[in-house]
Amino acid sequence: MYVVTGPAFAGDIPGDMIQVRSRTKIGIAVVRILANGAADLPNAVQAQQGFTVMPLSAYLRAGPGYKVPPLRPLMALYESKASEDIRDHYCPVNFRIDSID
Fold first, then answer.
1. pLDDT in tens, 58-71
2. Taking the domains of the chain in order of start, what are their residue ranges?
């Protein structure tokens, strides 16, 4: 097992993991599995199912059996009950807060 850490990471690494230190705080993980023809696809799928990406904190809490929690429902957007003619007269001013002196 591997653990990818940022350049300033100073925590402990579990003994069963190999640390890979990133040069930046931002990273991306890309896994590529090659199949040797259509007959090899079941083996490729099996290999894919063997990969797991999780935060180190989740691994320390739950181990390799960590399951991603279900998504929370999104909050419903506000729908105005005002009549169309009133809503049409509202004109928001768009500006960036950081442009104010």
1. 988 998 888 888 88
2. 2-99
